[in-house]
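#lab-general

N.A. 3:47 PM
ok so I finally got the sequence cleaned up, no stray characters, all 149 residues accounted for. can someone with queue access submit it? mine expired

B.Y. 3:52 PM
send it over

N.A. 3:53 PM
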Amino acid sequence: MTFALMIDPEAEREIRFLLGRYVHLLDAGEAAAWAGLFTPDGRWIRRNAAPAVLGGSGIAAGERRGRAELAELAEYSVRNFRGLCRHQMTDILLWRAGGGGVQGKCRMIITDFRDGPGRVAMVGSYDMTFARTPEGWRIAMLSAEFLPR
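B.Y. 4:20 PM
back already:
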C-alpha cells in the first residue's frame, strides 16, 4: 500500500475535527447536520452488506448521493439501533490527492448497546475523499466495507 505526501497540518486538524463531528452527530441522531458534513453531491458507498441477523446494520450495498439521501441513511441508522450504538473512527490516515484534495483511510468500530452491555456490532474500513469548499473541508466520497459479511 502506497500513500502520497502528508497534508498541511491545518488541513489535517480541520479534517480530523470533521471526522469527530461525523461520529458524534450520527450517534446523536442529527441527520441533517451529519449530511451537511458532505459536499452537496457527496457520496456514501456501501461496498457490502452487514446482515442484521449477524448483528450488522442490515444496510444494503449501494450508493447514497446528495445530502437528502445521506440524511435518510443517518435516520435509518438511528432508528435501526434505536439510538443505542456508538461509532468510533480509528487509525486515521490522510494524504494529499490530486487537484488540492485529500484522501483518507480509517477503521470504523460500531458498538451496539440495544441489549444492555455494549458489544461490537460491526467493524470496517472507510476510504474517503475530502474537498475544500466555502463551508470548509467536506467529505466528497466515503466508501465503506464492513464485517460481518
